[in-house]
Structures are given as structure tokens and as C-alpha cells.
TrEMBL record:
Name assigned to this protein: Holo-[acyl-carrier-protein] synthase
Subcellular location: Cytoplasm
Protein family (similarity comment): Belongs to the P-Pant transferase superfamily. AcpS family.
Catalytic activity: apo-[ACP] + CoA = holo-[ACP] + adenosine 3',5'-bisphosphate + H(+)
Gene Ontology MF terms: holo-[acyl-carrier-protein] synthase activity; magnesium ion binding
Species, as recorded: Hydrogenoanaerobacterium saccharovorans
Record domain 4'-phosphopantetheinyl transferase: where: 6-115
Amino acid sequence: MMIQTGIDLIEVARIAKSMQKQRFMQHVFSPQEQEMFEKRGKNPQTVAVNFAAKEALSKALGTGIRGFALNEISLLRDEFGKPYFQLSGKILEIVQKNRYKLSVSVTHTKEYASAVVVCYGGIEP
């Protein structure tokens, strides 16, 4: 079984500034995420941690942000607050084609947001 990890750390202030641009929000975040942000009062820490998770996922897959759009990756929360990915478009095709399973963990402080993604499984060589 293949196991790969990705990690990202970002300054919340950088994302808070970018949040002021509607184009940024639409380009990076899915409609489901944007709805979640609204419900959570557009908290910059939440937005930053979602951004970090997308970056960490691209690192775990080893692709960087190529071949898919960031807004095809949604980081949502279950009823207990546990984060999970909901994928669509090209990124979903990549994950399904390679039979990957994903695990994500996120955290933030007032100043920083971080995410770790583990990509495991995959096609046996």
C-alpha cells in the first residue's frame, strides 16, 4: 500500500486580505464551502484552514495544483466538526482512477492555519 503526506501552513492575515476579492473566493472555494463560510460568519481562520487543506492535498497527491481547479476540492465538516473532502471534476477523476483514500486534519490559531493530508491506498504496482 502506498502512503503519501502533504502539509501546509498559511498566515490567516494573508487569506483575510484575499477574502475581500470575490474572484478569489469563487476561484478557490466551492459553493458548498462558501455557504459554510457564510454560516460561520466568514471567519478568516476557517477560510484559511480550508485553503491550507487544498494545498496539502495537492502535495499529498504529488501533483501540485495542476490538472484540476481548487474549487473542485471542498473541505466540509460533519455533524461533529470533523473535516472531510468532497471532490468533483478532474480532482475526483484523479483520486478515483488511482483508488486513493484521503484523510485530513486541520488546525488554526488566530495567526496561522495548517492542514495535513494523508493519501493512502492506490493501485498496487
